[in-house]
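Worked example 3. Consider a protein that binds 6-O-phosphono-alpha-D-fructofuranose.
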Amino acid sequence: MQVLTLEQFIADRQQEIEGATGAFSKILRDLSLGAKLISFHLRRAALSGILGELGITNVQGESVQKLDHLSNTLFRQLFAKNPHMAGFASEEDDTFTPLNPEGKYVIVVDPLDGSSNIDVGVPVGTIFSIYRRRTPVGTPCTEADFLQGGRAQVAAGYILYGTSTLLFYTTGKGVHGFTLEPAAGDFLLSHPDVKMPEKSSYYSFNDNQFHEWPPALQAFITTFHQENRRSAKPQSLRYVGSLVADFHRNLLKGGFFMYPGTVAKPEGKLRLLYEAYPMAWLIEEAGGAATNGVQPILDIPPTKLHQRTALFLGPKTFLEKLAQTLSDHVPVEKV
Ligand code: P6P
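Given these inputs, the predicted complex is written out as structure tokens:
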């Protein structure tokens, strides 16, 4: 494969984001630097005493891991120095942080997704979503700059800290993956123009709340298991509890992921702006689909930074069948 660094790849395709004038390159360069530094910290965390909880709770009501805080602080500091970045929002922060009034872009991140897995050596990831600001350049960004909706994203992607450190992104011209080459200290193109297989090899969901799912979803999954058992090549369960790791495996090998809501909490657990929207754009660009069960994720209007949504990711035909089942049986009002 041709040796092409992330920077060279972006420079060659600068026109992907019209009017980007090198701004996108600088933003991806900051993401790449953050990825390298976080990867370094993760690989020796047990030796440097940065595993475990920080002793505070975040806006999600979750215990903040030391590495959550480190990753979030690192990305915020990197983008605060980036003249093109007008604002930063994160899973870890109650509200957004205005950065450079002259910047034309804002970014929202899940700085370290799946962090409860860090102490047990399971892959974790960073998820990012970038918008061109709507408010006038030269003024502080506002929350409205972050609440533009999934189809207004100009770039989205993830960093997977796994057996290798990977950076996958889209700007609407396909999904492209890069692998960190430690010898060079650079991300090199390793997965150009990724397409998700239509046939699923894996299914990924936590069924600990099966009894609380809408009856139509219970019926759909029961039928799914019956048909899977009869299949000549049954799909296997793979669920590591890190969205980025589960997503990445299913993207490359074909699979169905879901984190549904329950009758009591239809919005589920995962967050719209910095988990569902970026993953939804990536999977659509790779030929798959993303819904909340009945509606495309990218069409769900955002109302607040930490809005949650049910999330279903997989082959188009499978999600169309699911939507038909749920629409026929349960009056799920569209958001
Ligand atoms: P559960 C990690 O906490 C996360 O936000 C996602 O990365 C992951 O897909 C999901 O939650 C796992 O949740 O309830 O199955 O542990």
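Take a moment to read the result before moving on. The chain has two domains: 6-191, 202-326. The first strand starts at residue 53 and ends at 57.
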